[in-house]
Design brief:
By secondary structure, the chain is an alpha/beta fold.
């Protein structure tokens, strides 16, 4: 069984703590004192066996364990047990009862979960529970307990001492005193004899009832034996089933296969040894097969372009930043245009020739119309319509006049919308939107200062002829010019957005006034008014003037419509013919900047292409070298330094070529031997009809499993034979086990208990009657003292016979059980001692082994010279190593008989030196392949040493 995960919700110093084990068999937990190692040990004990810790109280936590390939969950919350396998019903037994045949927590703590204090002493080998469970038959814990109870009962009845105070000793002394007193009494009465005869008849009745009671008790004991043998019988049936499972008819050559396997392992170890020696000749961080040897020239070529690479990268980065900045400035400059809207793209292809022609045409038509208006005849009254430069119609609202009126209204609406848009933008600028007077005052002050500076310079040159005044005047002039420049910059650039918006508002306001005047004139012209009657000549002149106005107005309307249709996309809708050159100037200026940017982008693209070619070469080199770092000139320099180190190491490597070839030859020799051994192993596999060594090894493991289950089966059968009654009832005993049902036998046991109770009630009644007879005998007796002595003698005899019968029965049972126990111990204990001796040899660096032959004289060691070293001569560290070896051997024996339980060791290496610490870690790593081991330590040296040993997962203990 292996623990996969531990979780402490609340236990001792742990709160919401969990830990997941590694893949290896040994889990080493390192932590300083008071880091929680012993608390973790107590928590694991409590999760496995339950109970409440004296210091920490109840446990709340869980274990996730793996057993025979299945996952199990063991959770505890106080006394509540949550035990199940995912996807299966809950298990209501304790894990110790369900899996480990009832091993108690005390025995587990003495063998498997050890602190340094628990490790001390050899008395654990003499404990009845340990002897019966680890050296006895299957279910031996029941046999050991029975032996202990029987011995205790026999000792409580009789001791071999003249001064003994046990029950039989006291009865014999009292009976002796009674006989001495009766020998002094000689008179007997006839009636007393008659009563005595009746008294003897009651004894006969009592005997019959006692026989019945004995029969029922024998029947009850027979059922009790069946119930006690029930688990052992089921265990034997389980063993027989596993024997059938693992039984194989194949004839396997175990010794030859294991010998070949060991030789193959030795050959591979030597191959690794010579390979490591060859690798030791190699300079640090050097490999002759490194890609630096293949792509060295590429590195040299690329390093020559390193300066160009860095320059191109820098220029590209600066160019991208410059282009972003210039484009932002270009986009910002569009917001400063008065003739173009920044919220709409600017047209690409514009026919400026047509625009200039249409603007000139509109200007000519406007001038002609204004000149016509200036030639207004004297006959014309004020009510005569004047020229409308925005296309106003003549009076009487003809269809053309009405259309013109609608056009003017739409034009006015567009102007008003533009005014609202501009005012909204100016208001969104906040306090900065308000025009400032400061730049204008600065301009005025700087202008006055400049005039004063010029006068000072002229006075210094012409009047005073002083260099000081001249220089001071020049300095004052320069400062005044700088102040004037700053004021101008603040006026145009510092608040350029506001200035542009104010300028645009002025233009829109002017256009609004023009359109409103035109609309008023149109309405006024449409209103009929009384006019004086002119003369005939004046009327003819007026008529010609009005007709000329009609003609010029049509020409102007046509020119205005053509101009507005020509306005390109993105241009302001309120532009007139005077804005043409401003429109073209802003367009040319914008596209000139745009062409400059595009030219710079073209040159930047050429730089980027050159950079891409270099970086493609670098990426190909990075890929060939297996480097995952980003491509950069800095990384290239680092790679170049590595390449130089590789060349230097290569020179050193070539100088050691002869020694390397020698090591390579040794490696090749062992490699050939490995191939020969593999061929021989393959022949053995082919002979057995198997495909791989793992399959052969699995069959050997199955064979071992078969032998183990066969041993368990034989032990179970021997124990059943011991528990079975005599030969006459043995068949009945086994038939009851095969055909019976445990619940039915429990019912039969309860029935026999009731019958026994009934007979005991009858005996109680009989004893009451006998008491009456004895009382009558006492009353009728001529000698009160004699009567009392006789009655006391009979009572003492009866009690003594019963006690002797009980004592003889218990002594006989104890003798038989002790013989059986000794038989099992003689069979099992030597194997455990051999294991312990091999572990002692490993732990002490092959200096000592256990004295197995002289074990009856006490536990002792044998050194390399064959000298016997008794316990009193052991050092404290050597004693700890022997105690640890014995516990590991006991745990191994238990794994053979029942199951491999996790071993937990808390700071047991305190008195080990470094060499024996390493030997102990290597031994635990080897045992951990088949049995999980937890090792807690506060020694940093043990933690560092364990990291270099295969098979050990090292962790730092933390309660967070």
């Amino acid at each position: 069984m292996n623990i996969k995960r531990i979780r402490f919700d609340e236990f001792g110093p742990y709160r919401d703590w969990s830990f997941t084990t590694g893949d290896n068999g040994v889990q080493l937990m390192y932590g300083p004192n008071e880091s929680g190692k012993t608390s973790l040990l107590e928590g694991m004990r409590t999760l496995l066996f339950g109970g409440t810790h004296k210091a920490y109280g109840p446990m709340t936590g869980a274990l996730d364990v793996d057993r025979n390939g299945e996952s199990y969950y063991i959770g505890r919350k106080g006394k509540q047990l949550d035990f199940y396998s995912p996807g299966h019903p809950a298990i209501h037994e304790e894990p110790a009862q369900h899996w480990w045949h009832g091993i108690d927590k005390k025995t587990y703590n003495r063998i498997f979960a050890l602190t340094l204090d628990d490790l001390q002493g050899l008395d654990v080998l003499q404990e009845v529970e340990v002897r019966s469970r680890f050296f006895g038959a299957e279910g031996g814990e029941h046999l050991g307990g029975a032996v202990k109870d029987v011995e205790k009962g026999a000792t409580g009845l009789l001791v071999a001492s003249s001064n003994g105070k046990r029950r039989i000793n006291v009865l014999m002394d009292e009976l002796k005193e009674n006989r001495q007193k009766l020998s002094q009494l000689a008179e007997h009465e006839a009636q007393y004899v008659e009563l005595q005869t009746v008294f003897h008849s009651t004894e006969q009745t009592e005997m019959e009832l006692q026989n019945q009671l004995k029969e029922w008790k024998e029947y009850r004991d027979g059922i009790d034996v069946v119930l006690r043998a029930w688990d052992t019988y089921r265990r034997s049936e389980e063993a027989r089933m596993h024997m059938q499972q693992y039984n194989s008819e194949l004839a396997l050559s175990r010794d030859e296969f294991l010998r070949l396997d060991e030789e193959i392992k030795r050959a591979r170890d030597n191959m690794q040894l010579w390979q490591e020696k060859e690798a030791a000749l190699m300079p640090a961080n050097f490999s002759p097969d490194s890609p630096f040897g293949t792509y060295g020239q590429d590195i040299e070529d690329l390093i020559q372009q390193g300066a160009k690479w860095e320059q191109l990268r820098r220029e590209c980065e600066e160019g991208d930043a410059y282009i972003r900045k210039v484009r932002e400035q270009l986009e910002f400059s569009r917001t400063l245009h008065s003739a173009w809207r920044h919220d709409e793209p600017m047209a690409e292809d514009i026919n400026w020739f047509d625009g200039e022609r249409l603007a000139s045409r509109l200007r000519t038509a406007k001038e002609q119309l204004l000149h016509w208006q200036d030639r207004k005849p004297a006959e014309a009254t004020d009510e005569v319509p004047t020229a409308n430069l925005d296309g106003a119609t003549l009076p009487n609202f003809s269809e053309e006049e009405f259309a013109k009126k609608e056009y003017l209204e739409r034009e006015l609406d567009r102007i008003l919308m533009d005014i609202e848009r501009v005012e909204a933008r100016r208001n969104s600028s906040g306090s900065d939107a308000q025009p400032t007077i400061l730049p204008k005052w600065l301009q005025r002050i700087s202008g006055i200062g400049a005039v004063i500076a010029v006068l000072v310079v002229l006075a210094g040159l012409l009047v005073l002829e002083s260099a000081l005044y001249t220089i001071g005047g020049f300095i004052f002039l320069i400062l005044s010019m700088g102040l004037f420049w700053y004021a101008t910059w603040r006026l145009h650039n510092g608040n350029s957005e506001v200035s542009k918006l104010n300028y645009e508002l002025q233009i829109l306001s002017s256009r609004k006034s023009d359109v409103e005047h035109q609309l008023e004139a149109l309405i006024k012209a449409a209103t009929p008014t009384a006019s004086p009657v002119p003369s005939l000549e004046g009327a003819a002149h007026l008529e010609r003037w009005i007709q000329e106005g009609h003609t010029l107005q049509g020409i102007y309307d046509e020119a205005l419509a053509a101009w507005q249709n020509w306005l390109p996309r993105g241009a302001a809708k309120s532009l007139d013919e005077d804005d043409f050159f401003g429109l073209k100037h802003e367009y040319d200026q914008y596209h000139e900047q745009l062409r400059t940017i595009e030219g710079y982008e073209k040159r930047l693209a050429e730089h980027k292409e050159g950079l891409r070619i270099i970086e493609d070469q670098a990426m190909a080199l990075w890929y060939n070298l297996g480097i995952e770092a980003p491509v950069s000139p800095t990384e290239l320099k680092r790679i170049y330094n590595q390449y130089k180190n590789f060349q230097q190491n290569k020179i050193v490597w070539e100088q050691k070529e002869a020694q390397r070839k020698s090591f390579r030859n040794e490696y090749d020799n062992w490699h050939r031997k490995e191939k020969e051994l593999l061929l021989r192993q393959q022949e053995l596999l082919h002979k057995a009809g198997m495909e791989s060594s793992n399959e052969y090894r699995q069959h050997l493991i199955d064979e071992d499993q078969y032998k183990q289950w066969q041993t368990i089966y034989k032990q179970s059968q021997v124990q059943l034979d011991l528990l079975a009654p005599d030969a006459e009832n043995k068949d009945l005993f086994y038939r009851r086990l095969r055909e019976g049902n445990k619940d039915n036998w429990l019912d039969e046991l309860a029935h026999s208990e009731r019958e026994i109770a009934s007979i005991e009630d009858k005996l109680a009644t009989l004893y009451e009657r006998r008491g009456q007879i004895v009382e009558a005998m006492r009353t009728l007796g001529s000698d009160q003292e004699q009567h009392q002595m006789l009655q006391e003698r009979e009572a003492l005899r009866s009690e003594l016979e019963s006690a002797l019968e009980d004592w003889a029965t218990q002594v006989l049972i104890s003798h038989c059980m002790d013989k059986a126990q000794q038989s099992y111990e003689q069979e099992k204990q030597p194997h455990m001692l051999e294991l312990a001796s091999s572990y002692v040899e490993r732990l002490t660096g092959e200096r000592y082994t256990l004295d197995i032959l002289g074990i009856n004289k006490g536990v002792a060691l044998i050194n390399n010279n064959g000298e016997r070293l008794e316990l009193k001569f052991w050092s404290s560290g050597l004693a700890d190593q022997v105690y640890l070896a014995l516990r590991l051997a006991l745990a191994k024996v238990f794994s053979y008989q029942v199951e491999s339980l996790p071993i937990i060791l808390d700071d047991i290496f305190v008195r080990f030196d470094e060499n024996r610490q390493r030997s102990a870690l290597e031994l635990l790593a080897e045992l951990g392949k088949n049995q999980q081991i937890w090792l807690f330590t506060c020694q940093r040296s043990v933690y560092d040493m364990a990291q270099s040993i295969m098979g050990i997962d090292c962790h730092r203990l933390s309660r967070s």
